[in-house]
Amino acid sequence: GRTRHYKFNVQxxxxxxLCKTKTILTVNGKFPGPRIVAREGDRVVVKxxxxxxxxxxxxxxxxxxxLSGWADGPAYxxxxxxxxxQSYVYNFTIIGQRGTLWWHAHISWLRATIYGPIxxxxxxxxxxxxxxxxxxxxxxxxEWWNADTExxxxxALQTGGGPNVSDAYTINGLPGPSYNCSANGTKNLQAESExxxxxxxxxxxxxxxxxxxxxxSNHTLTVVEADAVYVKPFETDIVLIAPGQTTNVLLKTKPxxxxxxxxxxARPYFTGQGTFDNSTVVAILEYEKRHISTSSSITGLHIPxxxxxxxxxxxxxxxxxxxxxxxxxxxxxxxxxxDKKFFFTVGLGSNPCPKNATCQGPNGTKFAAxxxxxxxxxxxxxxLQSYFFNQSNGVYTTDFPSAPLVPFNYTGTPPNNTxxxxxxxxxxxxxxxxxxxxxxxxxxxxxxxxxLHLHGYNFFVVGQGFGNxxxxxxxxxxxxxxxxxxxxxGVPSGGWAAIRFRADNPGVWMMHCHFxxxxxxxxxMAWIVLDGKMPNQKLPPPPLDLPKx
Length: 549
Ligand code: C2O
What we know:
By secondary structure, the chain is mostly beta strands. Helix content is 7%, strand content 38%.
């Protein structure tokens, strides 16, 4: 492979959205940020220069980072943040992956505006396992706040309540043509295509807190890839995409259309309690060589119908349709036996309100979220650094529980006590351990879907279901033949998902809910994967420019 060099200058930039001008953090003044394009096997070297006032770190979401854990990016896990005026070079090779991934800031809520696509082309002279597309179009969903997102989350953490919800969803950074108060709102031609051709659309959900339904009117989509892994192709009119997930779909444009413009739309799937941004974002698919120039020419076009906000059975059926190709060229290497089993509850809870404060969480407490009742707190230095240099002293502990200390009826009547414990705890895994994790949603403060993301690995989703996981009845039904392989799975609301992976990548790897509000409330934990015996099974020392805390 070759080496691809990028320079990311994190800087403030003014943009106009929803009829207001706002100063946001961007990479190179672009929103959404620049694309990274590489081939499988290429080395990617990104020099990130922080010219903004905030601390920053960048995560290459879904890139496996084989033996390059220092480049993974989550602040206080693999690195200290890049401070204002400093820089850090992320250096990694893309091994065994091809498709769509993305990058985003991994500190506080900066990923609201610091994100962009990663496009991984197949190795030169190899083809896709589907018809060669005429063109490729990324579509990246986001969430827009008129307020400063740092202020939104900081206020929520101080008052213990839920953060203010966003003001709009965006498609490729734009809130859609219904906002005709600025140049950014009127022309929103997201995809231009010729008639009678096949297009590869790379869908990325970069929204902070919402799963999204997506549909293009009058067109059926063929799903061919999820999280940079090919899947058995299947047709659907509607796609559900969770934050963190990427989905590649094929779109066939009509050979003799009577219309040249069509609307696409996205809106949330939401199962939690409380408020959320219940808006729809619309964008235009326009066939080439025919033009519309003003927002008025789209009036009369049909906004595609999307499922109801809480369409959990649609989501479960859709999620179940994803299968690995499991072909000779792209086998599914599912661990058939398991060395270590874990049972993790994922859900909401509460922390006591600090003295002299008034808290807006449940019963006057602060909202929290946890895995096995442990709400993750940021250490003062990066876990990977302290682990690598044997300085774990007080930074983290390795006693993360492999199952809830007190089992309860997870999805039935919840226990009265909603309290969580705080801590910076990790699980230590010897190199090459095969791992099974059952992720169980809880109804402690209401059942809710949780997009769980694992750093440093893909995992196989061997099972999912509603209610409490049954350790006797459910495992015999696990799919070990062609389960989907991905890095982010929506744990069903009021249900569970079982994943398997082989711990063959030494380092410190975070697993967390990709709803940013749950992340901030502590729904995260860390795996420490030890070095193997062979030289090519050991994490090399950090680069010299690794930021210091
Ligand atoms: Cu896309 Cu830890 O995140």
